[in-house]
């Protein structure tokens, strides 16, 4: 049979009996945790979709399909992202410069510049939400610690009015204060792990796209040199 002291130490009771400041801290941390899990799910789907789309486009690109055909298909796809979007803008710039009769060097340099811009733009879109995860992971423990310090401070202030201090009078205040730190860690740990995971995954995707851009430039350079020699 539970004693009165034990029954008073249920987590739900401690949360309800906590001071308004500690309760506000707990609520903020709970909302931060829920939002971080939403971001984790969103980023997981986004990274998975991007990897699949990039792989699909690379297969088409290296299957021997005509660049004009790939360009026209990309032009018709208003929702193009990733490699297809980078390819579309890069090749579009290549065609534009060739039409202006720019030199081979100017054409390649202009194409490289657009490809770099496309890489940065698509990577920024892919990594949306990572900054928030990092903030939750770094700030949540300190917010929880603030709640703990505030709760312990209130607990000791309350003890000043008690003639005889016992474990039964000290434990509830300390316990409710520590819950804030526990919730802070609960919010922070998944956010930090997810941030590290998606950062690593994002770097891998960026490396693949950058390699594709270099190979595409090399291919266009060969075509540009070949067409120049034919004209000569």
From TrEMBL:
One of its GO terms (biological process) is protein import. It is a multi-pass membrane protein. It comes from the Bacteria. One of its GO terms (cellular component) is plasma membrane. Keywords: Cell cycle, Cell division, Cell inner membrane, Cell membrane, Membrane, Transmembrane, Transmembrane helix. It is found in: Cell inner membrane; Cell membrane. The chain crosses the membrane at residues 20-40, 142-162, 174-195. Residues 86-206 form the MotA/TolQ/ExbB proton channel domain. Pfam families: MotA_ExbB. Its main location: membrane. The Tol-Pal system is composed of five core proteins: the inner membrane proteins TolA, TolQ and TolR, the periplasmic protein TolB and the outer membrane protein Pal. They form a network linking the inner and outer membranes and the peptidoglycan layer. Part of the Tol-Pal system, which plays a role in outer membrane invagination during cell division and is important for maintaining outer membrane integrity. PANTHER family: PROTEIN TOLQ, TOL-PAL SYSTEM PROTEIN TOLQ. Belongs to the ExbB/TolQ family. This is Tol-Pal system protein TolQ. It comes from Acinetobacter baylyi (strain ATCC 33305 / BD413 / ADP1).
